[in-house]
Amino acid sequence: RIVLGIETSCDETGVGLVRLEPDGSVRLLADAVASSVEQHARFGGVVPEIASRAHLEAMEPTARRALDEAGIKLSDVDAIAVTAGPGLAGALMVGVSAAKAYAAALGVPLYGVNHLLGHVAVDTLEHGPLPSRCLAMLVSGGHTQLLSVAGVADEVTEIGSTIDDAAGEAYDKVARILDLPYPGGPPIDRMAREGDPNAIAFPRGLTGPRDAKFDFSFSGLKTAVARWVEQAREAGKQLPIADIAASFQEAVADVLTEKAVRAAVELGLDTIVLSGGVAANSRLAGLARERCAEAGITLRVPRPRLCTDNGAMIAAVGAHVLANRVEPSPLGLSANPGMSVDTVVLR
Ligand code: ATP
Ligand code: MG
Ligand code: FE
Protein backbone atom coordinates (compact mmCIF):
# COMPACT_ATOMS: atom_id res chain seq x y z
CA ARG A 1 0.00 0.00 0.00
CA ILE A 2 1.20 3.52 -0.83
CA VAL A 3 1.10 6.43 1.62
CA LEU A 4 1.43 10.07 0.58
CA GLY A 5 2.80 12.38 3.28
CA ILE A 6 2.44 16.16 3.40
CA GLU A 7 4.58 18.47 5.53
CA THR A 8 3.97 22.23 5.88
CA SER A 9 4.74 22.99 9.55
CA CYS A 10 7.43 25.59 8.94
CA ASP A 11 9.15 26.82 5.78
CA GLU A 12 9.44 23.57 3.80
CA THR A 13 6.62 22.29 1.61
CA GLY A 14 7.27 18.56 1.50
CA VAL A 15 5.43 15.74 -0.25
CA GLY A 16 6.76 12.22 0.19
CA LEU A 17 5.61 8.81 -0.98
CA VAL A 18 6.39 5.51 0.72
CA ARG A 19 5.32 1.93 0.11
CA LEU A 20 4.25 -0.28 3.00
CA GLU A 21 5.32 -3.79 1.99
CA PRO A 22 3.35 -6.90 3.01
CA ASP A 23 6.16 -7.84 5.45
CA GLY A 24 5.65 -4.53 7.28
CA SER A 25 8.80 -2.84 5.99
CA VAL A 26 8.51 0.66 4.53
CA ARG A 27 10.30 1.83 1.38
CA LEU A 28 10.94 5.40 0.23
CA LEU A 29 9.47 6.07 -3.25
CA ALA A 30 9.75 9.86 -3.55
CA ASP A 31 10.67 12.90 -1.50
CA ALA A 32 9.92 16.31 -3.07
CA VAL A 33 10.66 19.47 -1.07
CA ALA A 34 10.20 23.14 -1.93
CA SER A 35 11.66 25.58 0.59
CA SER A 36 10.86 29.24 1.13
CA VAL A 37 14.01 29.68 3.23
CA GLU A 38 15.49 32.30 0.86
CA GLN A 39 12.41 34.48 1.22
CA HIS A 40 12.96 34.57 4.99
CA ALA A 41 16.73 35.13 4.87
CA ARG A 42 16.65 38.92 4.97
CA PHE A 43 14.42 38.80 8.06
CA GLY A 44 16.82 36.44 9.87
CA GLY A 45 14.01 34.01 10.71
CA VAL A 46 10.83 32.44 9.35
CA VAL A 47 8.03 34.98 8.69
CA PRO A 48 4.75 33.04 9.15
CA GLU A 49 2.72 34.97 6.53
CA ILE A 50 5.41 34.47 3.89
CA ALA A 51 5.64 30.77 4.76
CA SER A 52 1.87 30.23 4.41
CA ARG A 53 1.72 31.94 1.03
CA ALA A 54 4.72 29.97 -0.22
CA HIS A 55 3.05 26.68 0.88
CA LEU A 56 -0.10 27.59 -1.04
CA GLU A 57 1.92 28.18 -4.20
CA ALA A 58 4.17 25.14 -3.81
CA MET A 59 1.64 22.53 -2.62
CA GLU A 60 0.27 21.31 -5.95
CA PRO A 61 3.56 21.41 -7.94
CA THR A 62 5.41 19.62 -5.14
CA ALA A 63 2.79 16.85 -5.02
CA ARG A 64 3.07 16.50 -8.82
CA ARG A 65 6.83 16.27 -8.56
CA ALA A 66 6.63 13.53 -5.92
CA LEU A 67 4.19 11.47 -8.01
CA ASP A 68 6.38 11.86 -11.12
CA GLU A 69 9.48 10.89 -9.15
CA ALA A 70 7.75 7.73 -7.92
CA GLY A 71 6.25 7.04 -11.36
CA ILE A 72 2.75 6.60 -9.97
CA LYS A 73 -0.64 8.28 -10.32
CA LEU A 74 -2.54 10.04 -7.54
CA SER A 75 -5.17 7.30 -7.77
CA ASP A 76 -2.51 4.73 -6.74
CA VAL A 77 -2.33 6.31 -3.28
CA ASP A 78 -3.95 4.28 -0.47
CA ALA A 79 -3.69 6.71 2.48
CA ILE A 80 -2.82 10.35 3.18
CA ALA A 81 -0.73 11.49 6.15
CA VAL A 82 -0.21 15.14 7.00
CA THR A 83 1.57 17.10 9.71
CA ALA A 84 -1.22 18.19 12.08
CA GLY A 85 1.21 19.87 14.48
CA PRO A 86 3.25 21.22 16.12
CA GLY A 87 4.11 24.16 13.88
CA LEU A 88 2.97 27.52 12.56
CA ALA A 89 -0.85 27.70 12.50
CA GLY A 90 -1.26 29.25 9.04
CA ALA A 91 1.40 27.03 7.52
CA LEU A 92 -0.08 23.83 8.99
CA MET A 93 -3.52 24.78 7.72
CA VAL A 94 -2.36 24.74 4.10
CA GLY A 95 -1.09 21.17 4.34
CA VAL A 96 -4.08 19.93 6.33
CA SER A 97 -6.52 21.46 3.81
CA ALA A 98 -4.69 19.87 0.89
CA ALA A 99 -4.58 16.51 2.68
CA LYS A 100 -8.31 16.60 3.40
CA ALA A 101 -9.03 17.40 -0.24
CA TYR A 102 -6.86 14.50 -1.47
CA ALA A 103 -8.33 12.05 1.07
CA ALA A 104 -11.92 13.04 0.25
CA ALA A 105 -11.35 12.94 -3.52
CA LEU A 106 -9.64 9.54 -3.39
CA GLY A 107 -11.85 8.07 -0.66
CA VAL A 108 -8.81 6.94 1.35
CA PRO A 109 -8.02 7.30 5.10
CA LEU A 110 -6.53 10.54 6.42
CA TYR A 111 -3.99 10.65 9.26
CA GLY A 112 -3.12 13.96 10.93
CA VAL A 113 0.21 13.03 12.50
CA ASN A 114 2.82 14.49 14.82
CA HIS A 115 5.70 16.28 13.09
CA LEU A 116 8.22 15.46 15.83
CA LEU A 117 7.60 11.73 15.53
CA GLY A 118 8.19 12.10 11.80
CA HIS A 119 11.77 13.13 12.56
CA VAL A 120 12.21 9.78 14.37
CA ALA A 121 10.17 7.54 12.03
CA VAL A 122 12.05 8.78 8.95
CA ASP A 123 15.08 6.77 10.02
CA THR A 124 13.21 3.52 9.30
CA LEU A 125 13.22 4.49 5.62
CA GLU A 126 16.99 4.40 5.67
CA HIS A 127 18.02 1.92 8.35
CA GLY A 128 15.02 -0.40 8.67
CA PRO A 129 12.88 -1.16 11.73
CA LEU A 130 13.74 0.47 15.07
CA PRO A 131 14.25 -1.60 18.23
CA SER A 132 11.20 -1.89 20.48
CA ARG A 133 12.40 1.11 22.50
CA CYS A 134 15.03 3.74 21.69
CA LEU A 135 16.16 7.22 22.67
CA ALA A 136 15.45 9.95 20.13
CA MET A 137 17.50 13.12 20.19
CA LEU A 138 15.56 15.68 18.22
CA VAL A 139 17.56 18.80 17.37
CA SER A 140 16.04 21.30 14.98
CA GLY A 141 15.25 24.97 14.49
CA GLY A 142 12.25 24.79 16.77
CA HIS A 143 12.96 21.83 19.06
CA THR A 144 15.64 20.25 21.22
CA GLN A 145 14.31 17.20 22.99
CA LEU A 146 15.29 13.82 24.33
CA LEU A 147 12.46 11.33 23.87
CA SER A 148 12.01 7.74 24.90
CA VAL A 149 10.17 6.17 21.97
CA ALA A 150 8.51 2.76 21.83
CA GLY A 151 7.39 1.26 18.53
CA VAL A 152 8.10 3.73 15.76
CA ALA A 153 5.86 6.29 17.40
CA ASP A 154 3.42 4.45 19.63
CA GLU A 155 4.40 5.56 23.07
CA VAL A 156 6.54 8.63 23.53
CA THR A 157 7.85 10.10 26.78
CA GLU A 158 9.81 13.30 26.99
CA ILE A 159 13.01 12.82 29.00
CA GLY A 160 14.28 16.37 28.64
CA SER A 161 14.09 19.47 26.50
CA THR A 162 15.47 22.97 26.10
CA ILE A 163 14.23 25.50 28.62
CA ASP A 164 14.87 28.41 26.21
CA ASP A 165 16.33 28.39 22.67
CA ALA A 166 16.39 25.33 20.43
CA ALA A 167 19.85 24.22 19.23
CA GLY A 168 19.13 25.34 15.65
CA GLU A 169 17.87 28.66 16.91
CA ALA A 170 21.17 29.14 18.76
CA TYR A 171 23.03 28.45 15.50
CA ASP A 172 20.87 30.99 13.69
CA LYS A 173 21.35 33.65 16.38
CA VAL A 174 25.11 33.14 16.63
CA ALA A 175 25.37 33.30 12.84
CA ARG A 176 23.66 36.66 12.99
CA ILE A 177 26.14 37.88 15.64
CA LEU A 178 28.99 36.80 13.34
CA ASP A 179 27.36 38.39 10.25
CA LEU A 180 26.98 34.98 8.61
CA PRO A 181 23.91 34.22 6.44
CA TYR A 182 20.61 32.66 7.58
CA PRO A 183 20.03 29.79 8.27
CA GLY A 184 23.14 29.78 10.42
CA GLY A 185 23.85 26.04 10.76
CA PRO A 186 25.57 25.37 7.43
CA PRO A 187 27.87 28.46 7.39
CA ILE A 188 28.93 27.94 11.04
CA ASP A 189 29.55 24.24 10.33
CA ARG A 190 31.77 25.26 7.38
CA MET A 191 33.67 28.02 9.23
CA ALA A 192 34.22 25.76 12.24
CA ARG A 193 36.27 23.35 10.14
CA GLU A 194 39.02 25.99 9.88
CA GLY A 195 38.89 26.88 13.59
CA ASP A 196 40.10 25.57 16.94
CA PRO A 197 37.23 24.12 19.02
CA ASN A 198 39.23 24.74 22.21
CA ALA A 199 40.13 28.35 21.44
CA ILE A 200 37.38 29.83 23.62
CA ALA A 201 35.78 28.11 26.62
CA PHE A 202 32.09 28.90 26.05
CA PRO A 203 29.66 27.76 28.79
CA ARG A 204 27.76 24.45 28.64
CA GLY A 205 24.26 25.23 29.92
CA LEU A 206 22.55 23.30 32.75
CA THR A 207 25.49 21.10 33.64
CA GLY A 208 25.59 22.03 37.34
CA PRO A 209 24.82 19.42 40.02
CA ARG A 210 21.46 20.96 40.83
CA ASP A 211 20.29 21.46 37.22
CA ALA A 212 17.68 19.20 35.65
CA LYS A 213 20.03 16.65 34.17
CA PHE A 214 18.39 16.02 30.81
CA ASP A 215 17.26 19.58 30.05
CA PHE A 216 19.19 22.01 27.86
CA SER A 217 19.75 25.76 27.78
CA PHE A 218 21.35 27.62 24.90
CA SER A 219 20.46 31.23 25.56
CA GLY A 220 23.39 31.71 27.97
CA LEU A 221 25.76 30.31 25.35
CA LYS A 222 24.41 32.73 22.75
CA THR A 223 24.84 35.64 25.18
CA ALA A 224 28.39 34.52 25.98
CA VAL A 225 29.24 34.54 22.26
CA ALA A 226 27.64 37.98 21.84
CA ARG A 227 29.61 39.37 24.81
CA TRP A 228 32.88 37.86 23.60
CA VAL A 229 32.38 39.37 20.13
CA GLU A 230 31.43 42.74 21.54
CA GLN A 231 34.54 42.88 23.74
CA ALA A 232 36.79 41.85 20.86
CA ARG A 233 35.27 44.54 18.66
CA GLU A 234 35.65 47.19 21.37
CA ALA A 235 39.28 46.24 21.73
CA GLY A 236 39.62 46.80 17.97
CA LYS A 237 40.64 43.16 17.40
CA GLN A 238 40.12 41.29 14.16
CA LEU A 239 37.39 38.69 14.91
CA PRO A 240 38.67 35.09 14.81
CA ILE A 241 35.40 33.93 13.23
CA ALA A 242 36.55 30.35 12.59
CA ASP A 243 37.67 29.91 16.22
CA ILE A 244 34.43 31.41 17.56
CA ALA A 245 32.35 29.16 15.27
CA ALA A 246 34.36 26.06 16.22
CA SER A 247 34.23 26.83 19.96
CA PHE A 248 30.49 27.55 19.86
CA GLN A 249 29.84 24.38 17.87
CA GLU A 250 31.92 22.34 20.32
CA ALA A 251 29.88 23.66 23.26
CA VAL A 252 26.60 22.66 21.56
CA ALA A 253 27.81 19.22 20.43
CA ASP A 254 29.43 18.50 23.80
CA VAL A 255 26.37 19.16 25.93
CA LEU A 256 23.92 17.49 23.52
CA THR A 257 25.88 14.27 23.13
CA GLU A 258 26.89 14.06 26.80
CA LYS A 259 23.28 14.25 27.98
CA ALA A 260 21.90 11.98 25.25
CA VAL A 261 24.39 9.21 25.98
CA ARG A 262 23.89 9.54 29.74
CA ALA A 263 20.11 9.35 29.28
CA ALA A 264 20.39 6.24 27.11
CA VAL A 265 22.70 4.55 29.64
CA GLU A 266 20.49 5.42 32.60
CA LEU A 267 17.33 4.27 30.83
CA GLY A 268 19.01 1.12 29.55
CA LEU A 269 18.38 1.97 25.88
CA ASP A 270 20.91 0.63 23.39
CA THR A 271 19.97 2.80 20.40
CA ILE A 272 19.97 6.56 19.84
CA VAL A 273 18.29 8.12 16.80
CA LEU A 274 19.69 11.58 16.09
CA SER A 275 17.47 13.69 13.85
CA GLY A 276 16.23 17.18 12.99
CA GLY A 277 18.06 19.85 10.97
CA VAL A 278 20.95 20.20 13.42
CA ALA A 279 21.70 16.46 13.08
CA ALA A 280 23.21 17.47 9.74
CA ASN A 281 26.00 19.13 11.75
CA SER A 282 29.30 17.36 11.12
CA ARG A 283 30.73 17.82 14.63
CA LEU A 284 27.51 16.81 16.40
CA ALA A 285 27.26 13.62 14.37
CA GLY A 286 30.99 12.94 14.79
CA LEU A 287 31.06 13.42 18.55
CA ALA A 288 27.81 11.45 18.96
CA ARG A 289 29.42 8.58 17.05
CA GLU A 290 32.52 8.64 19.29
CA ARG A 291 30.60 8.78 22.55
CA CYS A 292 28.03 6.17 21.50
CA ALA A 293 30.83 3.80 20.50
CA GLU A 294 32.48 4.25 23.91
CA ALA A 295 29.18 3.52 25.67
CA GLY A 296 28.29 0.55 23.44
CA ILE A 297 25.25 2.35 22.00
CA THR A 298 24.11 2.05 18.38
CA LEU A 299 23.77 5.48 16.80
CA ARG A 300 21.37 5.99 13.89
CA VAL A 301 21.45 9.23 11.90
CA PRO A 302 19.32 9.59 8.76
CA ARG A 303 21.06 11.21 5.79
CA PRO A 304 21.01 15.04 6.03
CA ARG A 305 18.24 15.45 3.47
CA LEU A 306 15.94 13.32 5.61
CA CYS A 307 17.00 15.11 8.84
CA THR A 308 15.51 18.45 7.77
CA ASP A 309 11.76 18.83 7.27
CA ASN A 310 10.32 16.74 4.43
CA GLY A 311 7.16 14.88 3.41
CA ALA A 312 8.70 11.40 3.48
CA MET A 313 9.01 11.55 7.28
CA ILE A 314 5.28 12.20 7.55
CA ALA A 315 4.52 9.40 5.09
CA ALA A 316 6.72 7.13 7.25
CA VAL A 317 4.54 7.82 10.32
CA GLY A 318 1.47 7.29 8.12
CA ALA A 319 2.73 3.90 6.96
CA HIS A 320 3.44 2.89 10.54
CA VAL A 321 -0.03 3.78 11.86
CA LEU A 322 -1.63 2.20 8.78
CA ALA A 323 0.29 -1.02 9.45
CA ASN A 324 -0.91 -0.94 13.06
CA ARG A 325 -4.54 -0.39 12.04
CA VAL A 326 -4.75 2.88 13.96
CA GLU A 327 -8.06 4.63 13.49
CA PRO A 328 -7.80 7.49 10.94
CA SER A 329 -8.43 11.17 11.73
CA PRO A 330 -11.87 12.62 10.91
CA LEU A 331 -12.22 14.42 7.56
CA GLY A 332 -13.09 17.52 9.60
CA LEU A 333 -9.54 17.47 11.04
CA SER A 334 -8.02 20.80 12.01
CA ALA A 335 -4.34 21.47 12.71
CA ASN A 336 -3.07 21.79 16.27
CA PRO A 337 -0.08 24.21 16.38
CA GLY A 338 0.70 23.12 19.95
CA MET A 339 0.24 19.36 19.39
CA SER A 340 1.96 17.50 22.21
CA VAL A 341 4.61 14.88 21.57
CA ASP A 342 2.57 12.08 23.15
CA THR A 343 -0.15 12.39 20.50
CA VAL A 344 0.70 10.36 17.38
CA VAL A 345 -2.53 10.78 15.37
CA LEU A 346 -4.81 13.77 15.94
CA ARG A 347 -8.55 13.16 16.26
P1 ATP B 1 11.09 22.16 13.59
O1 ATP B 1 11.40 20.89 12.92
O2 ATP B 1 11.53 22.17 15.02
O3 ATP B 1 9.67 22.56 13.44
P2 ATP B 1 12.68 23.65 11.57
O4 ATP B 1 11.84 23.43 10.41
O5 ATP B 1 13.34 24.98 11.67
O6 ATP B 1 11.96 23.38 12.96
P3 ATP B 1 14.64 21.82 10.52
O7 ATP B 1 14.29 22.13 9.11
O8 ATP B 1 14.64 20.40 10.93
O9 ATP B 1 13.80 22.55 11.59
O10 ATP B 1 16.10 22.42 10.86
C1 ATP B 1 16.49 23.73 10.57
C2 ATP B 1 17.60 24.13 11.55
O11 ATP B 1 18.74 23.30 11.38
C3 ATP B 1 18.09 25.57 11.37
O12 ATP B 1 18.11 26.21 12.62
C4 ATP B 1 19.50 25.40 10.80
O13 ATP B 1 20.39 26.45 11.18
C5 ATP B 1 19.92 24.07 11.39
N1 ATP B 1 20.97 23.42 10.61
C6 ATP B 1 20.92 23.01 9.32
N2 ATP B 1 22.11 22.50 8.92
C7 ATP B 1 22.94 22.56 10.01
C8 ATP B 1 24.30 22.19 10.26
N3 ATP B 1 25.08 21.66 9.31
N4 ATP B 1 24.79 22.43 11.49
C9 ATP B 1 24.02 22.97 12.47
N5 ATP B 1 22.75 23.34 12.30
C10 ATP B 1 22.21 23.14 11.08
MG1 MG C 1 13.04 24.46 8.03
FE1 FE D 1 11.09 19.68 11.81
UniProtKB/TrEMBL annotation:
UniProt subcellular location: Cytoplasm
Keywords, alphabetical: Acyltransferase, Cytoplasm, Iron, Metal-binding, Transferase, tRNA processing
GO annotation, biological process: tRNA threonylcarbamoyladenosine modification
Annotated Fe cation binding sites: 115, 119, 309
List of residues binding substrate: 138-142, 172, 185, 189, 281
Cofactor: Fe(2+)
HAMAP family, alphabetized: TsaD
Protein known as: tRNA N6-adenosine threonylcarbamoyltransferase
Organism field: Actinopolyspora righensis
